[in-house]
Amino acid sequence: MNIFGAMYDKTMQWSKHRFAAFWLSFVSFIEAIFFPIPPDVMLIPMSMSKPQSAIKFASYAAIASAIGGVIGYSLGYYAFDFVKYYIELWGYQGQWHKAVSWFEEWGVLVVFIAGFSPIPYKIFTICAGVMQMAFLPFLITALISRAARFLLVAKLAAWGGEKFSAKLRQSIEIIGWSSVGLAIVVYLILS
């Protein structure tokens, strides 16, 4: 079944759309609050299709993510009972407890690490608010870590460019189905 190829082609088509930068920024913003899909799925194809704009795209994503982080922080600070319901609903309890223990142990350094972590960023932004982390260090660290991550991703994708895009397209079904299989195995192990 070849579904990932069609999805890849559509994503590459959307990455060249005139409003792609807006949607990248929007996804980066909402991902720091509640959205489950990281902005990398847009940033990578956009940077591959327009390598000369990769730094600009990464900057948009970083700024929007930091602003979304402020909203996530505020939700944790002012509305944790509301947020707790969704943490449980979406099955993030284990990740939540891990984030809390990291905050207790390392403080603001966790926000920097979170910018690169596979644990959803929204967990850390909300947790920073719940833990009542000092706001200015949170904001500065969030901006630096997200900028570093998105710049790294964008520059690597731009470096590969259209040649990498063509090679990736050839292997996308194997990569896609392997990712699904890995996700199922991880889910079964962690359940």
TrEMBL record:
InterPro entries: DedA_domain, VTT_dom. This is YqaA family protein. It comes from the Bacteria. Keywords: Membrane, Transmembrane, Transmembrane helix. The chain crosses the membrane at residues 20-37, 57-78, 99-117, 123-145, 172-190. Residues 55-154 form the VTT domain. Pfam families: VTT_dom. PANTHER family: ALKALINE PHOSPHATASE LIKE PROTEIN, DEDA FAMILY PROTEIN. The keyword Ligase does not apply. The keyword Transmembrane helix applies.
